[in-house]
Amino acid sequence: MEAGQCLAKKYILMLTATPVQNNLDELHNLITVLKPGQLKTRREFKRQFVTRGDPRLPQNRGELRALLADVMVRNTRSQVSIHLPCRRAYTIRLQLTPAEQVLYDEVSTFVRETLRIVESTENQSCKGLNRFTLQILQREIGSSALAAQPTLKTLSARDNLPTEQRATLSRLAEQAAQITH
């Protein structure tokens, strides 16, 4: 029995203010929570509606839309009479402190070098680090030392990394912890 079928429910209302861009398996799971059996079994759903090799690309779109319309109402901003003010985005450039700049540069170098190793070989020494983890770390250090510090600390404790990488990550975590503003 799937988790959605275990829910005691008379009605379910789910709201989102952001576009759903999941793979179609996740769409199947969501609709199954709302109305079990609406999209048949996962295997039948995949065979009928998912393009082989691309889990985000649907096939038989018209038929899929008709099935979704039974359980889902989709309104875009243009369909409702909400008049929001124009969005004005500004980029504010901040100067990093010398300690922040050193940390940013060292983490970026670590990410770049590790990513090069991960992608160029099936090197088992980088087994514990993958592209996604490294991208997250780079985004965090682009935000702040405070954002990157927990990830650096967690990665430095991984047993499946070489001692040298763990030591580097530990040192970077300590540097990040020293930056207090």
Question: How would you characterize the overall build of this protein?
Answer:
This protein has 181 residues and is mainly α. It folds into two domains: 3-79, Tandem AAA-ATPase domain (Rossmann fold, 3-Layer(aba) Sandwich); 98-178. 53% of the residues lie in helices and 0% in strands. The chain contains eight helices and no strands. It has helices spanning 3-6, 24-34, 42-49, 61-69, 98-120, 131-143, 145-156, 163-178. α5 packs antiparallel against α6 (131-143), α5 runs antiparallel to α8 (163-178) and α6 packs antiparallel against α7. The longest helix has 23 residues, at 98-120. It is extended, with a radius of gyration of 23 Å. The model has no long low-confidence stretch (mean pLDDT 86).
Care to count the β-strands? 0
Classify the secondary structure makeup into a structural class: mainly alpha
Q: What's the gyration radius in Å?
A: 23 Å
What is the percentage of strand-forming residues?
Answer: under 5%
- How large is the count of helical segments? 8
How would you characterize the largest beta sheet?
Answer: none
The best one-word shape is: extended
Write the layout of secondary structure elements.
Layout lengths: L2 H4 L17 H11 L7 H8 L11 H9 L28 H23 L10 H13 L1 H12 L6 H16 L3
Helix pairs in contact: 5-6, 5-8, 6-7, 7-8
List the keywords.
181 residues; 2 domains; Rossmann fold; mainly alpha
